[in-house]
């Protein structure tokens, strides 16, 4: 009995779906961060001329005000212009970062809307438990990880920075525009190197987060038995299982149509695919059958695979009504089916 209570089994689809409804999904902060940072860097590079132009216009406006007497109305005008220009510079970047955050979330766990994750949990605001969590081993490990990642990323960035400083004596001889280009290029290199390091940390974090998530959802054998027992009594689950079984059966049946010798049709309402292998069976076998839409699908697959389609309404209706899938045809239909197969074999020889 003790073994039945140990959580050693992988979580079922229902367990994962229930956790998802509760807002419990595997989410890596590092993965979200690296996607957001990448988009931010890309946005800055793309929007740099636009942002620089607005910055230039703002400073130009400030310089044009030199010597103008200050009053209340004048100060309000300055504030309005400043806020407008700063918003125009920052807003596109903020939108890009916000979209990146949404994309990062969708990439990790898809679209998720639940109110349970944001409902207040008064147990979490217990000051005693909060103090214990603050100084828990898990929090300390998280702090060490964050510190290590920060020092590693910044350390590599500073190494490149000091390496580039050696070029400054030469760069000072350049024209101002060339100096700015040099500075921009070096900043891009440092940003990309730091981004690469953060990306490596993010990949590792995703692996760890997903493992911890699924380990946390592991079930005992007894829990799986109880879940199956509950599901078996649920009419909706029963309906879904039956629907899935029918879908699998249809797919398996349709996969046999290309191997058939002939498809006998009504011609519009019924279609029955026949296969005869005299070395394996004593009589032809019905490998697929259907009516209406299914009949049309069978005929379509038959045409695509070069299987002969023969119109014989009485025979098609009889085969559909009297013969189950994967079963041989009855003796009373031997003659009619034999005539069809003989005709097909003759056509194949031609």
Salient structural properties:
name from scop; 350 residues; single chain; Flagellar biosynthetic protein FlhB; T3SS_substrate_exporter; elongated; 7% strand; 2 domains; transmembrane; alpha+beta; four-stranded mixed sheet; 6 strands; two-stranded antiparallel sheet; 13 helices
Walk me through the topology.
Blueprint (H helix, E strand, L loop, with lengths): L1 H4 L1 E3 L3 H9 L7 H36 L7 H38 L17 H8 L2 H29 L2 H4 L4 H41 L2 E2 H12 L2 H22 L5 E4 L4 E6 L9 E7 L1 H12 L3 E4 L1 H10 L11 H16 L1
Parallel strand pairs: 3-6
Antiparallel strand pairs: 1-2, 3-4, 4-5
Helix pairs in contact: 3-4, 3-8, 6-8
Function: Required for formation of the rod structure in the basal body of the flagellar apparatus. Together with FliI and FliH, may constitute the export apparatus of flagellin.
Subcellular location: Cell inner membrane; Cell membrane
Main location: membrane
Biggest beta sheet attributes: 4 strands, mixed
Q: What order do the SSEs take from the amino end to the carboxyl end, as H and E? A: HEHHHHHHHEHHEEEHEHH
**Mean pLDDT, nearest integer?**
80
Number of domains: 2
Strand residue content: 5-15%
Strand order of the largest sheet: 5-4-3-6
The dominant shape is elongated
Give me the Rg, rounded.
Answer: 36 Å
- The separation of the N and C termini measures 70 Å
Show unreliable segments: none
* Beta strands, count: 6
Structural class call reads: alpha+beta
Helix-residue proportion = 55-70%
- The number of helical elements comes to 13
């Amino acid at each position: 009995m003790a073994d039945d209570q140990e959580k050693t089994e992988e979580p079922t689809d229902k367990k994962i779906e229930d956790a998802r409804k509760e807002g419990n999904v595997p989410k890596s902060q590092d993965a979200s961060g690296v996607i957001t940072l990448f988009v931010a860097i890309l946005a800055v590079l793309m929007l740099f001329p636009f942002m620089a132009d607005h910055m230039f216009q703002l400073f130009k406006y400030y310089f044009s005000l030199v010597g103008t007497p200050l009053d209340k109305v004048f100060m309000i005008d300055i504030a309005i212009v400043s806020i407008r220009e700063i918003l125009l510079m920052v807003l596109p970047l903020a939108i890009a970062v916000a979209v990146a955050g949404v994309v990062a979330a969708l990439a990790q766990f898809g679209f998720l809307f639940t109110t349970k994750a944001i409902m207040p949990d008064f147990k979490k605001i217990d000051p005693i438990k909060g103090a214990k969590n603050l100084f828990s081993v898990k929090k300390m490990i998280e702090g060490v990880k964050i510190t290590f990642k920060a020092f590693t990323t910044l350390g590599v960035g500073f190494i490149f920075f000091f390496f580039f400083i050696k070029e400054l004596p030469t760069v000072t001889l350049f024209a101002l525009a060339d100096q700015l280009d040099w500075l921009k290029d070096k900043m891009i290199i440092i940003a990309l190197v730091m981004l690469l390091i953060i990306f490596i940390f993010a990949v590792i974090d995703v692996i760890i987060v997903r493992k911890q998530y699924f380990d946390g959802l592991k079930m005992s054998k007894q829990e799986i038995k109880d879940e199956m027992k509950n599901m078996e009594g649920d009419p909706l689950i029963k309906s879904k299982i039956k629907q899935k079984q029918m879908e699998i059966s249809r797919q398996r049946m349709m996969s046999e149509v290309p191997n058939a010798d002939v498809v006998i049709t009504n011609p519009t309402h019924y279609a029955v695919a026949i296969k005869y292998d005299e070395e394996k069976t004593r009589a032809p076998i019905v490998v697929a059958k259907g009516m209406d839409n299914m009949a049309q699908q069978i005929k379509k697959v038959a045409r695509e695979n070069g299987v002969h389609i023969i119109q014989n309404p009485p025979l098609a209706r009889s085969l559909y009504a009297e013969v189950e899938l994967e079963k041989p045809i009855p003796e009373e239909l031997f003659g009619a089916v034999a005539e069809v197969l003989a005709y097909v074999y003759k056509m194949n020889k031609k």
